[in-house]
Design goal:
Helices cover 70% and strands 0% of the residues of chain A. Chain A contains 11 helices and no strands. In chain A, helix 6 runs parallel beside helix 9 and helix 7 packs antiparallel against helix 11. The longest helix of chain A is centred in the first third of the chain and has 24 residues. Chain A is elongated and about 60 Å long. Chain A starts with a helix and ends with a helix. In chain A, 38% of the residues are buried. Chains in contact: A-B, A-C, B-D, C-D. Chain C binds a DNA duplex (21 and 21 nucleotides) through helix 4 and helix 6.
Chain lengths: 235, 235, 235, 235
DNA sequence: GATGAATGAGGATTCATTCAT
DNA sequence: TATGAATGAATCCTCATTCAT
C-alpha cells in the first residue's frame, strides 16, 4: 500500500482514499515485509519497476519527449497498469524525484558534506561537489529531471519539487558556511549555487576521463571562488 | 542573396539546377541581388514572419514542444507555406540562431565588450554581462534555443550551431583577457564561462526589478571571481 | 499465440520483453494458446476486421494508393487502433498475404492440383488454372497484392513474400510435371509460368461471362503449349 | 506551338484557345523550324524538358508515386511552369505515351516486324520481341506507363491510351500472321499476346546478362508456341 | 490488480493545383 | 511565359489517457 499510495498522495489529490498517516512508519522500510501486506508487495515492485523504466526512458529521450507508453513498454507492463499507479507522466517524474532526494539524504546525510561548521570552505565545497557528481553518475536521471525548464520560469511540477528540495538542502548547508550573510541574500546565493552546480554538472557529464576530472576541478574552483569572499571574515 | 535566399540555398540543394549561369556573378552580391529577387520579396517577408512566429512559439512552448503547425498558425499561414521555406523545425531554429548571432555581431561588434586589452577584467566582464543580458531581454528566443539539450551530449543541430558560435566569440574575448592561459585550458574555461552565463541568464530572466538586478550582480561576481585568478599576473 | 499475436510478434519486436518465462512452453502451441488469450478475442476480431477492410481498400484503390486511414475508416475504427495491431501498411499487406497463402494451402493442398505424377500435363494445367482463378475470384485482393511492382525489380516486401511463396509452390508442382528439366531452367520456367498466370488472371478478371471463360481457355492454352515441349518424353 | 498545344488539346479542353487546325501540318515536323514561331520553340523545348523529367521520375518512383513537383524540380522549372503546359499529371503521362508510340512507329514502322505475310511465324515473333525489348531498354518509362493498372479494369487514361494503341498495332500484325482466325477471337488473342509481352518484359527487365537473354528466349517460346497452332494450316 | 484495446486529436510532412507578380 | 508563393486537405504515425474485461 504505502508506496503506491504515496505516489499519488504526495502531489495529486486524485487518489485521496489512501491511508496517509502511516507515511512516517513507511519510512522504516526494511521491516515492511513482515506485515500482512502481500498484495502491496506486488504493487511496490511494480512501482519500482515502473520508476526504473521511467528513469531509463527519461535518460534516453529526455523528459519532454518521453512517452508513458514507452515507459510501460520498457517496464514490461501494459499502459493500463502504469496508470493504475500513476495518474500521468508528471506524477512519475515527481515520485522519481522524491525517491532520488530520499536516497540522496539516506546516502549523504542531511548535508552534502561534513557538517562541522569549522570545516574550511574549500573542503566543504570539495566534498559537496564530489558527492553531487558521484550521485549523478549513479543516477543519471537526476539530470533529466533537474534539467532546467524549456521556458524560463515555467517549470514542470516535478522539476519544481526537486528544485525546491535541493535549494533547501543547499541553503541549509550554506547557512552553516556563510553565517554572516543576510537571509535575503542567502536565498539568492543558494539559487546561484544550484545554477552553477547544474551548469557544471552538464559539462562534467558530457566529458570523460581526464577532461571530466578537469571540469570537476573547474566547478569546484567556480564555487569556492564565488563563495570565499562571502565566507571570509572581514578580518 | 539576402537572408531569404540564404535560407533556401544554404540548407537545401533542391533547386540546385536553377539559374546556373549567374552563379559566379551571384557571388559578388551587389548585382545578384537584383535579378531573381523580385518575387522573393514576398517570400522574404514570409520568412521573416515565420521566424518571428517561430521565436514566439519557441518562447512560449520551448523548442522541443513547439510544433511546425503551431508556428505556421502563429504566422497566419498554412503548413504547406512553412515547408516551402524550411524543410523542418530544425532548419527554422538554425536560421533563427544564425540571425540572432548575426544581429549580436552587428549590434555589439565582434567582441562582447571593449576590445582594449588593457581593460581591467572586472570592467570587461561587466560590459559583457550587461550586453548579454540586454540582448537576451530583447530576444528571449535566444534562451529557448540555447537551452541545454534534454539529454546531456545530445544537442539539436540548431543548439549546437549557436553554442559553437558563442563559444568562439567568448573564447576570442577570453584570449585577450587571459593571455597566459594555455589553449587546452582556455577551451575548457570558455565552456565553463558559457555555462555560467547561461545559468545566470536563467536566473535573471526568472526575476524582475531589483531581484533581477541583484542576480545580474551575482552573475558578474561569479565570473569575475572565477576568472580573476587566471588573469592576475603571478606577480 | 494465435494470429493476433502472430501479427505482432512475427513482425515487430516491440513487445519482446513480455512473458519471457513461458516462451519456451509457448513454442509447444497447445497450452500457450490458453492463458494470455482471453482479452485478445477482441483484438483477434479487430485484426480480422482490419484485414478485411484492408482487402477491400486495396481492391478499390490499389495497394500503392491505399491509405492506412482509409483502411481504419473502412474498418470503422480509429487510426490509432490500426496501429495497435500493425506497424504500417506493409505489415498489413504481409499479414494479408500470409493468410491468403495459408488459405490457399488449406483449401487446395500443397499442390495446386492432382499430385499423381502420371496426370497428363493438360489435365494438371487445367486443374491448376481453375483453382487459381477460383481462388482469385473469391479473394480479389490477391491480385492487388500480387500486382507487379511499380518499378521493375523494386517490390514491396508484401509482394515479394507472396511472390516467393507462390514460386515455391509452382516450382514444386512443375518439378513433378517436368522431371527432366535441369534446376536452373526450372527456376526460370517457374518465373515465366507465374508471369503468365498473372497476366492471364488480369485478363480474366476484367471480363465476365463467356468472355471470361474464353480467356480462361486461352490462359490454359498458353500454359499447356508452353510447357508441353518441356514435358514431352524425347521418344 | 504544335506540341505544346497538342498536349492539351489531345485530352483536355482546358486550353482550348490554341490553333488546333495546324495539327495535320504539324506532323511534318522537320521543317517546322522555318515558320516565325520563335516563342513556340521555347515552349517546345520546355515540353521536351518536362517530358524527359517526367520519364525519369516515373521510372524511379513509379507513375502512382511520382509527383508533379518532383517532375518540375527534375526539369529545373517551377511547378507553375509545368502547369502552363500540362493540366495535370495524367496529361503528362498521356503525352509521354503518345510520343513513345510515335517514336515506336517512326523507328520500327507500322508493324513491329517484317511485313511480308510469308514470313514464318517464328521469325516474325523473334523480330517483334527483339524490337519490343530493344525499345523498352531505350525507353524504360514505357514499362512504368504500361504497367498494368493497380486495380483490374480501372486503368489510368494514359495507360489506356498506350494500351489501346499497342493493341491496334499488335492486332494488325497478328491479322497478317493469323489470317484464318475470326475477328472476335483475334481481339482476344491480341489481348493475350500483349499480356504475355508485358509479363515477359517485366522478367526481362529484372534480369541481366545471360539470364536476361534466357528470359527473352522464353518469351519468344511462349509466344511462338501459343500462336503456332493458330497459324498453322490444318494440313 | 492487470491487461490490452480503443480513442481521436495532434504531430510532421507532401502534394496537386492555383495565383499574383 | 515563368516564377515561386500559397493553399489545405491528406498522408502516416504517435500519444496520453480511458475502459471493458
Amino acid at each position: 500500500m504505502r508506496a503506491g499510495a504515496r505516489v499519488c498522495q504526495s502531489r495529486s489529490e486524485t487518489w485521496g482514499s489512501r491511508v496517509p498517516e502511516n507515511t512516517e512508519k513507511a519510512e522504516s522500510e526494511p521491516k515492511a515485509d513482515t506485515r500482512p501486506r502481500r498484495r502491496q508487495a506486488r504493487g511496490e515492485r511494480r512501482i519500482a519497476q515502473l520508476l526504473e523504466a521511467a528513469a531509463s526512458v527519461f535518460c534516453s529521450s529526455g523528459y519532454t519527449a518521453a512517452s508513458t507508453n514507452a515507459i510501460a513498454r520498457e517496464a514490461g507492463v501494459s499502459p493500463g497498469t502504469l496508470y493504475q499507479f500513476f495518474p500521468n507522466k508528471e506524477a512519475i517524474a515527481i515520485e522519481l524525484g522524491d525517491r532520488l532526494m530520499h536516497e540522496m539524504r539516506e546516502t549523504y546525510g542531511e548535508a552534502l558534506g561534513p557538517v562541522d561548521p569549522a570545516t574550511p570552505l574549500e573542503e566543504a565545497v570539495e566534498a559537496a561537489v564530489d558527492r553531487f557528481i558521484d550521485f549523478n553518475c549513479r543516477h543519471p536521471v537526476f539530470f533529466a529531471l533537474m534539467h532546467g525548464p524549456d521556458i524560463p520560469g515555467r517549470m514542470a511540477e516535478a522539476h519544481e519539487a526537486l528544485h525546491t528540495t535541493l535549494l533547501e538542502r543547499i541553503q541549509t548547508r550554506l547557512a552553516s558556511v556563510l553565517p554572516d550573510v543576510p537571509a535575503a541574500d542567502l536565498a539568492r546565493i543558494t539559487e546561484v549555487c544550484l545554477g552553477l552546480y547544474m551548469a557544471g554538472l552538464e559539462l562534467v557529464l558530457t566529458h570523460e576521463g581526464a577532461e571530466r576530472e578537469a571540469y570537476v576541478r573547474e566547478l569546484k574552483n567556480v564555487l569556492v571562488r564565488y563563495l570565499a569572499p562571502l565566507a571570509a571574515p572581514p578580518a
